[in-house]
Fold this protein.
Amino acid sequence: MNISFTQSELNAALQTAQKAVSSKSILPILSGILLNIDKGYIDFYSTDLELSIKYRMAADSKEKDAVVLPARLTADIVKNLPEAKINLDIDGKGGSVKLSCGLSSFDIRTYSAEDFPRFPKLQSEKTILISGKKLSSAVKQVIKAVSKDETRPVLCGILMTINKGKLKMVTTDSYRLAIHETAVENNAADDISVIIPARCMDEVSKICGDGDIEVGLAKNQIYFNLGNIAIVSRLIEGNFPNYQQLLPDNCELRVKLNKDSLVSALKRVSLLAHNNALVKMKIDETKVQISAITADIGSAVEDIDAEVSGNGMEIAFNAQYVIDGLSSIVEEEIFIELNNPLKPGIIRPVEAQDFLYLAMPVRIG
Amino acid sequence: MARTIIHVDMDAYFASIEQRDMPIYRNKPLLVCHTDDLSSYRGVVAAASYEAREYGIKAGTSVLEAKLKLPGAIYIAGNYEKYLYNTRRLVEICEKYTDLVEVYSIDEAFLDITPTIGLFSSAKDAAISLQKEVEGKLRLTCSVGVGPNKLVAKMASEFKKPSGLAVVEPKDLPGILAPLPVDSIPGVGRRMAKHLDAIGIKTIGHLVSAPVEILKRKFGVIGEILSRAAIGVGDSPVVPAYKGMDVKSFGQSLSLGKGSTDIGYLRDVLLGLCDGATRRMRKSGYLGKTVVIYIYLGRLFGLSRQTSIGAYTDLPKQIFDTARGILISLLEERASLDIYPVTKVGVSVTNLVKKESGQQMSVFDLLYEKEAVLTSIVDRLKNKHGEKAITRCSLLEIRN
């Protein structure tokens, strides 16, 4: 059968569907995208068995056919084609497709559609509506603190809780922890607490736009309905660390600083830090002194004016962890709250109450 | 890379030492017994001279049975200090051939001569020279097996006892192994042999042709090890007891005698081991991140598995929480447990860093803060009043 697209609509579909294609899958079929043409729609399906994406568009054909295209190759071809009409000629036997556009023509071997895993059918136990805008800004703020260490799967996800009208997203890689909190209308029957793979949330936040999105929860899966796109992901099982226990009730020392000056100072000083990491912060009545030293290389020191309440202290951090926390904050003015050199430092915006970032110190002295 | 492993097995060790030292024992049936009273019928034979073996008496035979069969033999009690002295001399000789010498038991050692094989004209030459040197210096005979791994080397040393020497090349493995009965695989005892016999497996050749899936279903993880052993594959390393090496791990293990299948008991044992290993870590100022658990099922089958904790620690609870998870997953292979109880449990913490300034702290340091305080109090008590001053209630039974 023959179907046609514009370059931009096919490119959009393939780029989105490609997000769930794993580059290191053991099953060759999972390196493909399933095109299912039926009832006047073309559905693009992809999955790595953890994350599954479905992208729907209207078709100009009423016929029925299905084929699995190699994802990377097809997406690269389409990306490099000019904005024009693209024809896809699907060989009835399922051996190959012919893709043509203007004077270019490609013959691409395909996989059999029957071998492609079915898109997960979800029996939602709960369905809620979340504002896409709130969701994506929350994800952007917390995603930097997600762990990349796959030996602790729980830390590779985002803890999402909805409780008493508050949506919370929490991440930690055990060296820092980020919490975003925002008010939502919780229309689910009871509270929600799930750990969602960070990769899934990252994709959802990039695609979702500002409007409300429907989120469905089943026993071990989560479902996002984004209009013509549906995303289903496995949930991460396990217990998220009890982060509430980490948050100090009060603080001995509070420093008010300009975020940008602190970020630039940290970037400069950390160039002289051992492994670009350890910087010391020495806080007295009026300023924060940032310093770093590497044996045989040299040292750096920089003062930043600050409003300080409490007694002075010297504490050390991995500079990158502090920079990550600061750059997740939109506001200009921030607080750093400290208790002692072996307790975490809390970074938060001065005005907004929606974000908190905790960085564990480096042992010194 | 192909390995060359030598297994040295002393012939009728304790009996041979006694015969060497006491000329009147020579050429006579001599039984070295493990007993508190030689005039009684209690205890077992620890070693039987070759003269006694002709009457069907061997190590493990009860003294009662031996006395009934051979009342005229010479019965003596073992002098283990003397045997250990000889073992140390044996190890010194072995260490001239390679630094990778593993003392496997009081009368056996493995040598990994892969790195040093170039010093000899062949593996066989090295084995002959080692055998001669042991005979010359200790005036004791030994059987020597050479193979591509510990398993094959150990089997080879059994081929021609006493004073035997056998070299098994990887290419000859199938022909040599196939006709042997299954119980010639080290660790396959009478009970395992019976279970295998029940499904028609009598020889190693039969074992090779048995589908691994069936063996796995019937014997759990042991099935897989068996299947590999049958084709002469074994990759366990020769582990030398180095002196003065860099600290790479802190470990502790406990042999459980006849063994146990009680998961609750094994878990308590593990907790005790975690306490012991982390106590030494704290004394030396190390933090670790990877936990390795190993268990022995029966006499020879060892299983091990490891997991990363995610953050550096020296606290027993944190190590134990991870270790317990691994232990349970290992024990889930119930099929193997039914045949072989757990005879040894060990824990080892690796991936170490020195606890010093410059160490990035983790949120788990805070989550386990109470335990850190408690542990440091327990440490102080032990430092002042000795290691036995304080223990966990759940470990009282084990300690007694």
